[in-house]
Predict the structure of Nucleotide-binding universal stress protein, UspA family.
Amino acid sequence: MAYVVPSMRAIYATDLSAASEAAIHNETCLECLDRVGVETIHLVTVVPSNVHAGMPGMDLQQRRQQGLDRYRAVMESAGFEVETHVVRGTPHRRINGIAGTVRADMTIIGSRGQSPLENRVIGSTARNLARTTVVPLLVNRVERATDEPEIRHEHLFQRILYATDFSENAERAFDAFSYLRHATEEATLVHVESPKDPSDDAEAQLETLAGRLDDWDIDTSIELRYGDAADEILAVEDEVEPATTLLGSRGRSRLRRLMLGSVSEEVVARASGNVYLVPPPRTA
């Protein structure tokens, strides 16, 4: 029996910037979303709460709705069902709220990524979403320092770097391959060991995961590294140049909410490509 791609709902958060324009108008990116099962897109833009009521704020809200209507036309022509939301408040809180309300399967946000002048800097909304997201989050990298930016990787999921610490939430992130595989051709699996406390079976566990992807005809390789986890994951990213790095937002750490976990936060902040971050299951 042929596998049926699930019907998915995505939140597409936009500030109507040039970076958002680049991502939304890229046909290949939209085709990738279609291939992994996205059928409905909720376009969301947030008017910051410090923009006060009155004529200026109302004009801003109207302009944002007009911008969303233009994006809606692009996405509807690509075959998606689209709803638009112009809301007021703190961006990451409102985006998470809508994601929970519509029971979205993923949230997508564009980010210009690391600043050439400031290490570990991403946009505040992307950073806050990475720390608090209630659904898998795709941080879509866009070029910096240009008036007409282009996205870094058009084929969002063609080549994936999957980072694991073999925790429960890392396994949950691996499960995302069940739908990403429809757009994935190559995967690299990486685990970073502490030189002071190496395990005996890490390579065997990586081989087991690779076998699962091989069954789906994904060309898979493994990397077992030693040292600082974030540094080594990012080093592998530089070497294999994946379109997207896939990882869980929390692994062995018991820290909650704004303490994302140092490895995940470092990768989201410093990666040169896209990052797909999978959080723990929603609580009731």
Notes: The first strand starts at residue 8 and ends at 13. The mean pLDDT is 82.
